[in-house]
């Protein structure tokens, strides 16, 4: 993805002491030449921090998202250039000329491009890619060389550019569609563990992303946080739930907390599949209903 698109999302980047502490630690590791890995559950700000860090580093950015289908070729590069053309003669119908050209040329893929030019690589959710695909990173991060595939004639080893930096993110709570990080790879990066934001940061992000005034956003965030702390949900509601509730309510001008829709927004968003459903204790048919009752109680407590 190109830089200006990546950095557009940084315009409302919030810096509280919690966020600043993370940035300072990460920048210290990067300056000492280490790859940084933000590890944490969904919605804890991993990707946003990675992008902000990349912006601070000030080099061109290559952003990739881990993918089960990735092969080493997708990351390092391969030979490309097959061309086939068909010429049909409109006057002599029996004439059909087919021309095939095999003109293979090496094409760098994203990691090679970043390593060669000293870009900053953000590898988001890297544990979604197979270890076989990610193996290429071992020598890049360890010995600072990229071993090129045999088909890349002439250039067997590429020295890693001194300005190359790698930033990784992963979610240790994901269990479907992810692979265990190889010990050797984990050993070559410095991992910073993230958890849900502190209250001050969650309020600041909610205000920045929704436009809601602070006094109102405080109450929204407190309900979401109390709900989060209440129990073991299958998916814990994240800061995205606070942002979504605040956005919807803020857009409804003059909506009073006594209006049934006001409460319904909390129930819909906090019980929805996207922001944190549904299993308190054992899953059963009433799970959603009981979750809704928890939200209602919290709402009544904070808005009475
Ligand atoms: N420092 C910040 N300033 C402003 N907004 C932020 C900040 N950190 C996170 N956010 C917002 O919080 C939400 C979650 O952040 P982000 O997507 O970075 O989390 P994540 O851990 O990468 O989540 P996931 O694992 O689900 O992809 C996003 O809407 C993001 O814009």
From TrEMBL:
<dbReference type="InterPro" id="IPR027417">
    <property type="entry name" value="P-loop_NTPase"/>
</dbReference>
<dbReference type="GO" id="GO:0016887">
    <property type="term" value="F:ATP hydrolysis activity"/>
</dbReference>
<protein>
    <submittedName>
        <fullName>Gas vesicle protein GvpN</fullName>
    </submittedName>
</protein>
<dbReference type="InterPro" id="IPR003593">
    <property type="entry name" value="AAA+_ATPase"/>
</dbReference>
<dbReference type="InterPro" id="IPR050764">
    <property type="entry name" value="CbbQ/NirQ/NorQ/GpvN"/>
</dbReference>
<keyword id="KW-0067">ATP-binding</keyword>
<feature type="domain" description="AAA+ ATPase">
    <location>
        <begin position="32"/>
        <end position="200"/>
    </location>
</feature>
<dbReference type="GO" id="GO:0031411">
    <property type="term" value="C:gas vesicle"/>
</dbReference>
<keyword id="KW-0304">Gas vesicle</keyword>
<keyword id="KW-0378">Hydrolase</keyword>
<comment type="similarity">
    <text>Belongs to the CbbQ/NirQ/NorQ/GpvN family.</text>
</comment>
<dbReference type="InterPro" id="IPR013462">
    <property type="entry name" value="Gas-vesicle_GvpN"/>
</dbReference>
<dbReference type="GO" id="GO:0005524">
    <property type="term" value="F:ATP binding"/>
</dbReference>
<keyword id="KW-0963">Cytoplasm</keyword>
<dbReference type="GO" id="GO:0005737">
    <property type="term" value="C:cytoplasm"/>
</dbReference>
<dbReference type="GO" id="GO:0031412">
    <property type="term" value="P:gas vesicle organization"/>
</dbReference>
<keyword id="KW-0547">Nucleotide-binding</keyword>
<dbReference type="InterPro" id="IPR011704">
    <property type="entry name" value="ATPase_dyneun-rel_AAA"/>
</dbReference>
<dbReference type="Pfam" id="PF07728">
    <property type="entry name" value="AAA_5"/>
</dbReference>
